[in-house]
Amino acid sequence: MRVLRSHQPVPAALKGSVIAIGNFDGVHLGHQAVIRREAGLARALGAPFAAMVFEPHPRQFFQPDKPFFRLTTLETKLELLG
User: Fold this and answer.
1) Residue 55 near residue 9 (C-beta atoms within 8 A)
2) What is the enclosing helix (H) or strand (E) of 22?
3) Spatial CA neighbour of 19 closest among 56, 29, 37
4) In angstroms, what is the C-alpha Rg of the chain?
5) Are 80 and 28 in contact (CB under 8 A)?
6) Among 42, 55, 53, 54, which residue's Cα sits nearest to residue 16?
7) What is the pLDDT of residues 41-58, one digit of tens each?
8) pLDDT tens across 12-28, in order?
9) CB 50 within 8 A of CB 4
10) Which residues pair with 2 in a beta bridge?
11) Contacts of 27 (CB under 8 A, 6+ apart)
């Protein structure tokens, strides 16, 4: 699985991919279910699969003056998704 960050253009090799899109903070069981479902769809279609994460965190973007809590750092999130 390839992991994309929201501000990156989709690489040419991933055109036509099935992409799971989300914040995926904590990569909890619900996130894992979404990722499994989309990965299965990609396999069924014979398409590449990727996950796209929102970075910076949406709250940093939309409400930069308000504090927020992250369950995981970006580095940990990428490790969990990998």
Assistant:
1) no
2) strand 18-22
3) 37
4) 13
5) no
6) 42
7) 999 999 999 888 888 888
8) 888 899 999 888 988 99
9) yes
10) 50
11) 72, 77, 80, 81
